[in-house]
Design goal:
The complex is a heterodimer of chains A (158) and B (316). With 158 residues, chain A is an alpha+beta fold. Chain A is 18% helix and 32% strand. In chain B, helix 1 packs across helix 10. The chains are: A alpha+beta (158), B alpha/beta (316).
Chain lengths: 158, 316
């Protein structure tokens, strides 16, 4: 099935954000990372496990009437570093945004280790996580060195 | 200025160079001569949790080289209990001193302090994290006994799960191609992520619950204390801890040059009968804390240790 068919499993949106090329099965994690849940008032369309030439299978999310901010892109980078993000205005792609998972993730999430020095929220230095490898994703706290589990990190979004 | 937070902050060549400096400084550490290399320099001792050997050996190291020491003192009487952040404490001490030695109950505190400071931080233990200055004195002791760090067979025994000393040392020994044997009760095994990390770095690692079957091939036996509070019931503790007690009677067939080490304090994991054997290395190891820290402070402050210490120093 072509990419176009995959995209059209749900209707085109007038304004908002399309997140494409999410690794298959990760769409719910993406929504959680972005804080888009059941209580969100904006319409959200989601397709999962659709065929993709590039990825074999992928997920797609369309969020209406909401444009992702740079901070949200930084969060997205942890869950779907190779996703494509397009801002839609009046049914057209107005802007393509780049996700950049560099060597360090700063002030996006807090270290998940309960005895890390950064658990004292009054400490002023930035929260820093080092990206040791992208695939598989391997992240450690810059300060305590503990490896970070993505499911736990999602609960520690700043 | 860079400090020492983990052993990754030093290359193997830098480690060897610091150990060489330490070796030359031995007569100064023993008080046999005076060499005021650090005159006019001030060490800040920030111990946010109890320490005997580490704090005292940092202080002795500084004073043996003519430097001064200021202490945080009892945390209960400091600004920390008023809620001062570590960042603020470091800003203050950073202005008072040239180098800081620190122990803190929170993991990552030393790196956090280094990122907050202008002066070098020496990590004297951060939670269950790292204790690299202990590793430096352990490496010094091993090299003193065997003349090398390369390719030795080292047994690490006891509490390998919570002991930050054995974590740092294992990583360092791996870098020198040592073979590691981890002997511990199942409950206190070396954390799996550390074992896999060591193997990824080429370590030869064997895990066992049987300490005594490993000791005859060892060049070093590094004992640690098994703490009663780690166990759910006392019977389990008595059963486990009993298998990790060394007695002089166990040493009949060990290698003649094998040394037994322990970061101290010991409880009863090394019987006093071992103290008088040629294998007892733990008291010398504790002394080496001074000389290793002397060399480390010089290195971090950019102070050159003279090639001929005896010619450069003076008598008392």
């Amino acid at each position: 099935m072509s990419n176009e068919h995959s995209m059209r499993r749900v209707t085109a949106i007038r304004n908002g954000t399309v997140i494409d090329h999410i690794p298959s099965g990760q769409a719910l994690r993406v929504l959680e990372m972005l804080g888009i849940g059941g209580k969100s008032s904006v319409p959200v369309s989601l397709v999962m496990n659709v065929p993709s030439k590039k990825m074999g299978a992928k997920d797609i999310i369309k969020v209406e009437d909401r444009e992702l901010t740079q901070t949200e892109l930084d969060r997205l980078a942890l869950v779907a570093p190779d996703a494509h993000v397009a801002i839609i205005r009046a049914y057209s792609v107005a802007e393509k945004m780049t996700i950049n998972l560099g060597g360090e993730v700063t002030n996006v999430v807090r270290c998940t280790f309960s005895n890390c020095i950064t658990t004292n929220l009054r400490e002023p230095l930035p929260h820093r996580l080092k990206v040791i490898s992208r695939d598989p994703l391997h992240i450690r706290c810059h300060y305590c060195g503990r490896p970070q589990d993505l499911d736990d990190l999602i609960k520690n979004v700043l | 200025m860079a400090g020492l937070i983990t052993m990754d902050d030093l290359t193997n060549d830098q480690i060897i160079s610091i150990l060489d400096d330490a070796n030359r400084l031995l007569p100064v550490a023993k008080g046999e001569m005076y060499l005021p290399l650090l005159q006019g320099r001030i060490l800040g001792n920030l111990f946010f949790e109890p320490s005997t050997r580490t704090r005292m050996s940092f202080e002795t190291a500084m004073k043996r080289l003519g430097g001064e020491v200021v202490n945080l003192g009892d945390v209960k009487n400091s600004s920390v209990v008023k809620g001062e952040t570590l960042f603020d404490t470091i800003q203050m001490v950073d202005g008072y001193t040239d180098i800081i030695a620190m122990r803190h109950p929170r993991q990552g505190a030393a790196q956090y302090a280094q990122d907050s400071a202008r002066v070098p931080i020496m990590n004297g233990g951060d939670g269950a994290g790292h204790h690299p200055t202990q590793t430096m004195l352990d490496l010094f002791t091993i090299r003193q006994a065997h003349g090398t760090l390369e390719g030795l067979k080292v047994v690490l025994a006891g509490d390998l799960r919570y002991g930050r000393t054995v974590h740092s040392l294992s990583h360092a020994l791996t870098r020198f191609g040592c073979e590691l044997i981890f002997a511990s009760p199942d409950l206190l095994k070396m954390p799996a992520e550390i074992v896999s990390d060591l193997r990824e770095h080429g370590a030869k690692v064997v895990e066992t619950e049987d300490l005594l079957s490993s000791i005859n091939q060892a060049d070093v036996i590094y004992m640690t204390r098994i703490q009663k509070e780690r166990f759910a019931d006392e019977d389990e503790y008595v059963r486990c801890a009993g298998a990790y007690k060394l007695h002089a009677d166990h040493l009949g067939e060990v290698k003649p040059e094998m040394i037994i080490m322990h970061p101290l304090p010991r409880v009863d994991e090394i019987h006093s009968s071992v103290d008088s054997t040629r294998h007892a290395g733990y008291f010398n190891q504790a002394f080496n804390g001074v000389v290793a820290r002397m060399a480390l402070i010089c290195y971090l402050l950019g102070v050159t240790v003279p090639a001929d210490v005896e010619a450069a120093g003076g008598a008392f």
